[in-house]
Amino acid sequence: MEKIMDIIDSIAHEKGLSVEQVSEAIKKAFENTAKRLLGEEKEFEAELNKETKKIEVFQKIQVVEDDDERAKENPDRYITLSEAKEYDPDIEVGDELKFPIDLEKYGRTAAMRLHQEIEYHIQRLIEQQLYEKYQKKIGTIVHGTVTRVDADENTYLDIDEVRGILPRKYRIKGESFKVGDVVKAILKRVVIDKIHGFYLELSRTTPKFLEELLKLEVPEIKDGLITVEKVARIPGERAKVAVASHSPKIDPVGACVGVKGVRINAVSKELKGESIDCIEYSPIPEIFVARALSPAIITSVKIEGDKAIVTLPPDQKSKAIGKNGINIRLASMLTGYEIELVEKGEAIGTEEEKKEEGPKITLEDLFKD
Questions:
Q1: Is the pLDDT of residue 220 over 70?
Q2: Tens digits of per-residue pLDDT, 147-157?
Q3: Mean pLDDT, the chain, as a whole number?
Q4: Which residues contact 72 (CB under 8 A, 6 or more apart)?
C-alpha cells in the first residue's frame, strides 16, 4: 500500500489517537488480512518502512532441527535447518525465515478484507481510549441530552462523543424524560458488550448522586472544608446526609442548608422534591445514632454489636419511626446499625410509669404485613 505512513498520520489526527497506536492497529489489520487470505495456520508479520512509507507483509517460518517432526506436520510454520540454509547459509536453529507476501495480487478481495480489518481495529482503539477516559470519571456527575426513551422506559442520552443509558431501575420514581431534555446523572459504570457496544451506565438513585450534587451547590465541600461522611437515600422520598466540618468557624449543617435553605432546596429540586435531612457526623456511635434519628429526641443509646438499642419518650416514637417507617430505615442505613426502639416514660408521668419500659420495636416489626 502506497504512502501508508501518511494514512496513519491522518487517522491518528482525525481520531485523536497516537501514531504508535494507529501503526500497531494497521499492522495487525494487515497480518489478519493475510491470515484470512492465505490460511489461519500460517504466521505473518507486517513491518512499516518509514523511508518508502510502505507496509510490507512477511510469512514467518521458524527454523528447527532436521529431525524435528514439526517440520513435516506443519511446513507452513516450521522448516528444517538443512532446507533453511538453502535460503540463508548463516541461519541457525531458532531463527526465522521471512518470505514477502504481495497482498495486492489478491485484488478486490484483499482490499475489502483489509478495509474491514482496519476499521475494526481503529474502532477498538477508540473504544479503549474512551473506556479509559470515562473509567476515571466513575462516581462523578455527567450531563447528557435525551435522544430516545425505549418501550422499557430506559432513557438514552448523548454525552459528548458517547452514548449513555439511564435504566428505568436507576431513575427516580415518578420522573420521566422526553427527547431534548438535558439530564444530570452519576456515572455508575463503563460498559462494552456485544448487544449495545460501548456505553455509559448512569444512575440518579445512588447516594453518590446526592453527594455530588451537594458538592456542586456547597463550595465548602468542594474546597474540602466540609466532608460528606455518610449518605442514605430512599430516592424521590427522603434522604439523610451526615456532614463534618474541618474548621471550627464553619457549621457543616448550616453551610449545606444555606441561607433560607437555598442550597439544599436546589439539590432537592434536582431530585424531584426529595426531602433531605442534614445532620452533623460524630465518630461516637451513640451520638451518631441519636442524631440520625432526628427529629426525634432520644433519651439514650446503647450499642450492642451491630445493634443500637434506643430509649426514647413515648411521644417521640412516631417521630423516630417516621411515616411508613422511613425515618428509622434511613437512620439504620446511615449508621449501619440495626435500631431497636424502647419506650420510656417522661418526667410528667407517675413514678411507676417512669420505671416501666415499653415494648421493643425493631425494623423487622415495622415491615410485617
A1: yes
A2: 999 999 999 99
A3: 88
A4: none
Closest CA to 27 of 123, 118, 128: 118
Which element (helix H / strand E) includes 264? helix 262-270
Contact criterion met (CB below 8 Å) for 80 and 68: yes
Residue pLDDT, tens place only, 307-350? 999 999 999 999 999 999 999 999 999 999 999 999 975 443 33
**Side chain identity, residue 233:** R
* Cut 0.85: pTM above it: no
Contacts of 236 (CB under 8 A, 6+ apart): 172, 173, 174, 175, 271, 272, 273, 274
Name 303's bridge partners. 308
Q: What is the DSSP pairing of strand 197-203 with strand 162-166?
A: parallel
Locate all alpha helices (DSSP H) within 85-206, ordered by sequence. Answer: 107-135
Q: How far is it, in rounded angstroms, from Cα 122 to Cα 127?
A: 9
| Contact between 164 and 200 (Cβ < 8 Å) | yes
Structural contact between residues 100 and 15, judged by C-beta atoms closer than 8 angstroms:
no
Domains of the chain by start residue, with CATH = 4-134 (3.30.1480.10), 138-203 (2.40.50.140), 206-281 (3.30.300.20), 284-369 (3.30.300.20)
Q: Beta partners for 49?
A: 54
Q: Which amino acid is at 108?
A: R
Q: What does the pLDDT read at residue 354?
A: 41
> Taking Cα atoms as reference points, which of 205, 191, 195 lies closest to residue 134?
191
Q: Where are the beta strands (DSSP E) in the chain?
A: 43-49, 54-64, 78-80, 96-101, 141-149, 155-159, 162-166, 182-193, 197-203, 226-234, 238-245, 275-280, 300-304, 307-312, 338-344, 357-362
